[in-house]
Amino acid sequence: MPANILIVEDTESLSLLYQSYLIPTGLNTFVAGTGQAALDYLSNNQPDLIILDIMLPDMSGMDILAQLPNKNRPDVIVLTAHASKELAVEAIRHGAIDFLEKPIDAERFRITVNNGLKLKTLSKKVEEYQSTFENGRFCQLIGKSALMQNVYQIISNAASSKATVFITGESGTGKELCAKAVHECSDRKQAPFVALNCAAIPKDLIESEIFGHVKGAFTGATSNREGAAGQADGGTLFLDELCEMDLGLQSKLLRFIQTGTFQKVGSETLQSVNVRFVCATNRDPWLEVQEGRFREDLYYRLYVIPIQLPPLRDRGEDVVQIADAMFARIAKEEGKTFVKLTDNAKQKLLSYDWPGNVRQLENMIRNTLVMNHSDIIDSNMFPAFPISQNKNSSGSQETEQTSYFSNKIISPEQSDSFPAISSESAHPIKSHLDIRPMWIVEKEYIEQAIDICGNNIPKAAAMLELSPSTIYRKMKTWEE
After folding, report:
1. 3-class DSSP state for residue 113?
2. Is 324 helix (H, G, I), strand (E, B) or coil?
3. 8-state DSSP, 286
4. What residue segments make up the domains of the chain, in order of their start?
5. Which residues does the UniProt record annotate as the domain Sigma-54 factor interaction (predicted)?
6. Going by C-beta distance under 8 Å and a sequence separation of 6 or more, which residues neighbour residue 440?
């Protein structure tokens, strides 16, 4: 839609001249001959840009600048026949983005207006992204943690590109929601988003599911069928669990990605489509290449913009924000009422490592809502949480001490018992006066480990055989 430009100029011949300058741009222009006429227009309309003459018959252009609202403020380019450094500085101080001296060259005028509109568009995008990041929601993704903020930024940067996005992360971390966010932030958002789970389709049917088939191509092919590639034309094709794909089909997929063309099963006709590829796997794709289960040339073709989704256990307070949103949504689906989580419930959510990530959290929430009839959710309403055996960053297993959480709240010191501390690092105990609280000993040991690892908490967590979320929770309790 063309931008709206308000021209505030008391000389009619000049206002018509400025309008004529902008005719080739296709912009919508409106003219106000006095300051009051401009204010009247602004009270009912919101132009994208104002071209403002400083010297008006009834008031100064500076007065108009001073009365513009701070919220949704239109950008202003000031015009004057009485240019001076002092006047320019004053105009900029009141919010003008540029300053032109009369008489004005047509090309210079158009360039200045175009730059002003570009700046306005950029400012809006920045505000939208900042607002989105601050409230912890990005499309259907939820979370304010620094790890998720980084994911949002990558999606924002990559969305407008045609480059393939490769999403990795544990099962249940929300890889399909991430893929949808890439699609929704792109200029393809009005076109189809087609998702295909390569692990859920039998090996002998997946080629047909991707490329489609013609009637009679195989037993049961009673009619022509459009595959995911054809359905996604103009939009985004999401291939989930890509590393499960058969090696033979990987070569056909590579050719499709390289040429944008494919053949339906049983057809000799090439079809051409315009598709943006987004892929995902819960495996290490490079390890799959080394093990011979994934083609190296396909890896290099697809692994252009990687996005690593963090596990829920490393996202801190995000688990509470996600739980709040899910309780509200699922309560509506189940015909229940949800008001809030108690502090005990929040603490229990934070104290568990969620080996099944967001998917496990969602199932737990549905169970809680179905089995209870209170609109205020407390920790004793949660079902028993199974043992978590999560891999930390060093690849070893960190195992909880109990096979199930009881309905009693477990403190971080109880649920995340720290590994035995060697006598070399601990102060020797010679009498009861030397005995110190365990949390102080743990605190000193963890702080020493973090210091030795150069303040790299994930690295320190790996060395200590703990998850980073455990250390973050302990650090939070030390501050309280």
Report:
1. helix
2. helix
3. H
4. 4-127, 137-308, 313-479
5. 141-370
6. none
Cα dihedral 336, 341, 346, 348 sign: negative
CB atoms within 10 A of CB 201: 17
Q: Is 181 exposed, middle or buried (0-12, 13-18, 19+ CB in 10 A)?
A: buried
Which residue, among 3, 60, 68, has the nearest Cα to 34 in the 3D structure?
A: 60
Look up the CATH superfamily of 137-308. P-loop containing nucleotide triphosphate hydrolases (3.40.50.300)
DSSP-assigned letter for residue 384: P
- DSSP assignment, residue 243? G
CA 391/CA 399 separation, integer angstroms: 9
Instruction: Give pTM, 2 decimals.
Output: 0.59
Side chain identity at residue 36, one-letter code: Q
Give residue 213's Cα distance to chain centre.
36
- SS3 label, residue 304: coil
Helices (H), 161-213: 175-184, 206-211
Domain topology for 4-127: Rossmann fold (3.40.50)
Q: 261-263 and 270-272 as β-strands: parallel, antiparallel, unpaired?
A: antiparallel
- Which portions of the chain are predicted below pLDDT 50? 390-426
